[in-house]
Structure formats: C-alpha cells, structure tokens
Design a protein that fits this description.
4-stranded antiparallel sheet; 34% helix; Alpha-Beta Plaits; alpha/beta; 298 residues; 14 strands; single chain; Rossmann fold; 6-stranded mixed sheet
C-alpha cells in the first residue's frame, strides 16, 4: 500500500504541493487529476524519490521510499522517455537490468508482453521505426517488465487508437489483479470514470475534491435529465425554477438541474408528450472537474 501523508513541497516561496494526503491500497486504481501546473508531476517525483518533500512523508508498505524500494515502482511518463536508436529488445533489457532482473527472465517477460500487445514481430525493430502508438506500448512494457508493486500512469493512452486502448486496459487490469497499486492521471475523464474507484482533484497543489467517485458524484447535487420525444415543451421547461439550462445534443435534449427534486417537475411537463427517453443521470466527471476548478478560480 502507498501512503502519502501531509506532503508539502516548496520551490523557493512557491508552494507546489499543499498538505496533500491519500492512500492507494494493493490492487486499487487511484485517480490523481488537475490542470497543467496543479502539482501532479511534483507529487509523482516525490513518490518516486526524485524530489524531497519540504514536509510530510511517503511510505510504500510502511517503509520510506528510497533506492532500496524504487525497483518496486513503475512509471509511465506523459513524455516518451525511450532510447530511440535501440531495438525493442535492447531497450527492455536495459530497463529490466536496471530493475535488478536477470536477462533470461526479462526475455521471457518481453515475449509475453509483445504477444499481449500483438507486436511479436517488433522485438528486433528499432524504437525510432515504430509508430507513436507502438512506442507507447514499449514505454508501458519498460515500466512494468519487473511486475511493480506500485505503478504510476501519466496519460498512458497517448497515441493509441481505440483497439490498442482496449489492449492497454486489459494489461492494466491484469496488473491490478496481481495486487499492484496504481495511480492513474489523465485529462480524458472517461478513462478516470472507467478505471478509478477513488480520486483527488488538485488545484494549485491542494486537494479540492477527495473521495470515492460514486460519492463525489452523489455529493455534487446537480443532475442531468436526458429527454427525447416529439413536441417537447422546451420553453416551459426552461421556466421551471431549478432548471439551469436546456441543450440539444444529437437526437436528444439535456436539461441541467440544481438537484434531483427538480426532475419530477420536468416529468410532469412531458408526460403527455410522445417521449421515447426520460433519464435522470449523474453528472459526468468532466462536468464536476470544470465546476470545482472554476469555483476555486473565482
């Protein structure tokens, strides 16, 4: 288990991380979100032991993270960090040996991963000859070849098409089943919703949202009502107190409301219409992120 306890990091007078705490249990996928400059990368570097926090502590299985523990961590960076003149095999051997693995074990694991990612023929290809998507697969393999205890994923789906995103998802879920603690960061909120049970949203290094995704959505009272039908009384719906907006999205209308008590009032307006859809929906994580970050800015 990873424990981040009240960490603060100053760069001179600038506070990059502000009293941040969270836990990631074995086999748990945790979302760390924030705008660019929110403090995510600084937090990652502190966890990896690349930066020293000004205050607080970071523990992995109850021990302070130092060079004796960094071999148990994997990190997929947002920017590619591959040695492009090497072949795939040379690259993975290099990273595996750095993690204390024996060459025979590395080669066995590499063949398995290449098979899982459907790129068995690329073992002796140079990194620079691969597409961006396949380079991303190799970057992922280099981070997990040693079966890490903790894995940090910073925008792991960059450059991947939908088919390869699914292959990557399967790989992440497999590591989760093995008990790996995973921190997931992405600007694509649908990935956070699909993967993470718990999350934190950072603004200027401080957690402004912290908890289970289902609870975060429940506590955010604003809901959406999705409507589809003929001759909907849209102007009347707009006049209902508590209706925030009515927007057309493709073949339906999305009515944003202050809370779920407004939903029956909308239903009373449309129940005599020929409606083919009436759903009260939770807000998306993207909506919550925009609203919460906007509140702090104001």
């Amino acid at each position: 288990m990873l424990q981040v306890k009240n960490i603060t990091k100053y760069y001179g007078d600038y506070k990059a991380v502000d009293n941040l705490s969270f836990e990631v249990k074995d086999g748990e996928i945790f979302g760390l979100l924030g705008e660019n400059g929110a403090g995510k990368t600084t937090t990652f570097r502190i966890i990896l032991g690349l930066l020293e926090q000004t205050e607080g502590e970071v523990l992995l299985d109850g021990k302070h993270i130092d060079y004796s523990l960094t071999d148990k961590i994997g990190y997929v960076t947002e920017e590619r960090s591959l040695l492009t003149k090497m072949t795939v095999k040379e690259q993975i051997l290099f990273y595996g040996i750095l993690k204390g693995m024996k060459e025979e074990k590395i080669e066995k694991e590499l063949k398995k991963w290449l098979h899982d990612f459907e790129i068995e023929d690329y073992e002796n290809r140079k990194i620079k000859e691969l597409s961006k998507g396949n380079q991303q697969k190799i970057q992922f393999i280099s981070a997990v070849i040693h079966h890490p205890k903790l894995l940090i994923l910073d925008e792991p789906f960059t450059g991947l098409d939908p088919i390869n995103v699914e292959l990557m998802k399967k790989a992440i879920y497999q590591l989760q089943k093995e008990g790996c603690s995973i921190i997931f960061s992405s600007h694509q909120m649908e990935h956070i919703e699909n993967f993470c049970e718990k999350l934190i949203i950072l603004v200027k290094g401080k957690a402004i949202v912290d908890g289970y995704v289902k609870d975060v959505k429940k506590e955010y009272k604003k809901k959406n009502v999705a409507l589809r039908g003929e001759k909907l009384p849209l102007e009347e719906i707009k006049k209902i107190k508590g209706v925030l907006s009515v927007e057309k999205q493709k073949e339906e209308y999305i009515v944003k409301i202050e809370d779920e008590t407004i939903a029956p009032k909308i239903f009373n307006k449309v129940k005599t219409c020929n409606i083919t859809k009436y759903d009260v929906e939770e807000p998306t994580l993207n909506e919550i992120f925009i609203a919460k970050v906007g509140e702090v800015r104001e």
